[in-house]
Amino acid sequence: MIRESEVKYCISHELPALAVELSYIKDDNDVYRAIDCLTNYTKTAIRENNLKELEECFNTAYHLLHEGNRLIQLAVENTFIYAVSSLLEISLNATQPARTLFLNNFKKEYCRLINSQRA
After folding, report:
1. Rounded Cα–Cα distance for residues 32 and 37 (Å)
2. How far apart are CA 84 and CA 2, in angstroms?
3. pLDDT tens for residues 43-52?
4. What is the pLDDT of residues 69-108, one digit of tens each?
5. At a CB cut-off of 8 Å and minimum separation 6, what does 101 contact?
6. Would the pTM count as exceeding 0.90?
7. SS3 for 52?
8. Residue among 57, 71, 38, 69 nearest 106 (CA)
9. DSSP state, residue 68
């Protein structure tokens, strides 16, 4: 199980391009800021239609969601999935392969998010 103090390492290990930005987060336990960094990077990959990098972002978020403790899971659901799904819904740059890739990884959580917004 991944702990809070390991999130920055996991992200920077799987996405080395984020290592410098993550190093600016002084508190190693600041899960939400680390996930926010991953989210912003993912949104950029969507806007640029960079499917290779987008797949890496989704794999990283999926890994954190399924291997992280409850706080990490909540951070991924409340920050990453919410923001990325919103962008995929409204963005003209988001391609069908990007949307499909997202749903392949996060369909259950996305459906839960949609249903909670309707209630």
Report:
1. 9
2. 22
3. 999 999 999 9
4. 999 999 999 999 999 999 999 988 788 999 999 999 999 9
5. 51, 54, 55, 58
6. yes
7. helix
8. 57
9. B
